[in-house]
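Below: protein 1.
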Amino acid sequence: MKILYDHQAFTMQHFGGVSKCFCELLLHRPVDMDIDIAIKQTNNTHLIDSKLVEGLIHPAMDFQLFAKRFPFIAKHKIYQLLNTLSLIKGSEFLNKEESIRKIKDNKYDVFHATFFDDYFLPYIGNKPFVITVHDMMPEIFPDYFRKPNPETKRKKELCEKAAAVIAVSENTKKDLIRIMDIPEEKIHVVYHGGPKVTEKFSLPLIDGEYFLYVGQRDAYKNFHQTLVDFSLFHQRFPQVKLVCTGKPFTLFENKMITDLGLEKVVVFFRPSDLELLNLYHYAIAFIYPSLYEGFGMPILEAFSCGCLVLLNKKSCFPEIAGPAAIYFESIEGKSNLFQQMIDIYTLSSLEKNELIEKGLSRAGMFNWAKSSMQLMGIYESCIK
């Protein structure tokens, strides 16, 4: 059985959860599952490091490079027009052409679209295709996305036409049924796997005690309320830091940090993958205050590093973490995270070790090879 994957996830992301998950699933696939990824050019670090595709080259031009060189208004429309007229050829367009070529070649059994561009529908004929829904963010938080959002319409259409829809959690499955009325029998839940942490941890990268916040901080991530909660904790324990990864602080965030008197204890750190594991391992706890996630990969990363986890009791978090995390309730203007930070900070060594063991056990329940075997079973069901 041969599965053809298209370029989308690896073109739109230089790194990130969607493309990383596809790479992990394919790296752990069963030996009798033949794959092909229709892509020529990419800066995606996960795909490059995986060596799943031979002969990959770095793009001479893509939208991010174009935007940096030509910082004018409506640059996305101009970029689209120049590519359509063949005045330039960005990697997005070259990769789409490669995907169309391989779809039309018809040398596969099942096609797996890695995001929600429906470009392939005129070319796929009667071949079954599969679509993965990683979250329902645009539908649940429409105010944070452009209106009208074309992704929502395409997502619904593709889910309706697909031979199978993959959701990354039961919570995402429920959202698909509730919001888009996708038949339950069409949706299959395939969890992500957890990382295998085999590193011996070096000395801590951060001096002193700290809580850890990982990833993006805007909109539904609920970071601003977390700063408020941490400022209350700081009044009791002024020596403890809050370490944040992701992008550097915005002007608004810096102002808020200063206004709350936290400029000496809220710090930004941009870690490598190995350094991130170090940050997890030595943290008091990892804080995940987000209002919604499709799965929540950092939960498993933290568990695998022996890190305690503080989770907002929202969306799929209880489904993924189970009894291995400590939960709080937080929305803007109302939160008990402050109290839970105190509780976890004052746990005895015995209580901490018990939670760490629960986390390690929980992480072991999520396995990429198991998920990839499940994925193969779904492909097989599409061609019976």
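Below: protein 2.
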Amino acid sequence: LIEWLDSKGMERWEYLDEIESMPPDTCYSVGFLVEDHAEYKTIALGLGTTQVLGRTTIPAGCIKSITKLTTSS
């Protein structure tokens, strides 16, 4: 389980005197850690013996915490 900060964006013109604060969103992703690099972590949604499904790379600077999940069996 990775808790991380994601960027936000606005897609329209805004008047400077009318803009509101736009902090990043806190996101949570669960997956199999397939690349544990110092600058980023890559997780996969599914993991087989020879394949992975649905990879996501998260920059290390955006990661707030990593929690190792285990099964009860």
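The chain is about 0% helix and 50% strand.
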